[in-house]
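hiii so my PI (J.) wants the whole complex modelled not just the main chain, which honestly fair. so below is everything: two entries, each one labled with what it is. i double checked the lines twice but i was tired so who knows lol
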Amino acid sequence: MLGGFDFNLVLSSLPELVVGLGVTIQLTVVTVLAGILIAMPFGVLRASPQKRYSMPIWAYTYFFRGTPLLIQLFLIYYGLAQFKAIRTSFLWPLLREGYWCCLIAFTLNTVAYTIEIIAGAIRNVPHTDIEAAKSMGMSSWLILRRITIPVAIRIMFPAYTNEVVFILQSTSLASLVTVLDLTGIARVIIARTFSPYELFITIALIYLGLTYLTLWVFRKIEGHLYRHTQSAGTKIIAAPSLR
Amino acid sequence: MPLLNLFDLQGYGHLLVDGVLITITVGIAAMAVALALGILGALARLSPTHWLRNIGSTYATVVRGIPELVLMLIVYYGGTVLLQQLLSLGGEDVRVDINAFLAGTLVLGFVYGAYATEIFRGAFLAVPKGQIEAATAFGMSGSRIFRRILFPQALRLAIPGLGNLWLTLMKATSITSVIGLTELARQADLIKNPTHAPFTVYFIVCLLYLLITAISDVVRLRIDHWASAGFRRI
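here's the output for the full assembly
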């Protein structure tokens, strides 16, 4: 700072940072897609009034929401090597890669949070909506498809937006298991140039831009989901909240 | 017994206990910073002064858009370079080592203070306006209204959000391991190789975090009960 903020260094690092940005976006998109696909059926089961369905899923979400993502990542990245069966399995070439461990850890983690978001939304679907559908003679499957799921999607959308932003920011942990994402690349360049300020501030600004870009895109989708209501398009983009 | 073997730390277990203590200490210290910044941030956001509002909202917006890890690295490594340059201006050429506990506490407090700002802002806004007006009519000064009317009620409203903040913050303390603070995650990193049992180590660390979470939940219920005394539960 005092010695001057070296803009040339930032400029000359940009090509490398763009490669790292690609890895960050890739990790985020794959995790988000895998997360929502896996979480959907389990979220519905989690909202089930039958304990034998909801309890095992509760145990899963309690574990993954009650422990730090960083530890979950290390549990997979360092931990799996403890078991000979895994070291000798055909999956080992993948499981010893930081990149794949990240995808697995991030997905397991976001699935837990997304399950609770989905289950919470389903529980909050107004009873009257479902009663009305029943009185129209809809089957329970049809009610799920036409009433519960569409209404639940609108209810869960703000919380889910937050979850996506959280995943985006969490991908920076990948740099701790040798992955060259945005943070990882920055650390490599810093090790070479000894200029932590320039690079960390640059990537902080990139993350900031990515976060608000994501929030903006999801707000657009939200406006589309709520287009039949008055609140459509009136809300400003709020900063992400706690998970 | 293969199952018991899975929980054998070969005499390194006490290091994890040390780690738990540091994790809790840094968590509490950071929570204190976060609460202070949260109250200040909320007051700034709700203040009639334009530039104070801007500072408050910039703080809440910017900090929440950057990963904690990156902020931690900026403060720790960037701060080291900055301090070194500052000192060399004065003609001294010394190696600066920033205290990891201090850096970790300040960064976590700074980050979670931004979330606390939002929680307190909501809580202050939720206190009925009529009560402030009544207090003004009684001739109370602004600071007295804050102390006697606004803050006590806002605190009660903020408690559920703050409980959630605490749980998230406790998990986030694991990030301080990257700057070398010997909390739980760092201790696990240190003993994973000598024990040759990395899964065991990290799994036990997970259970310790779950224990902290479970105890926090009990405490949270107690505090909630205490703060809601005199309020009917609906």
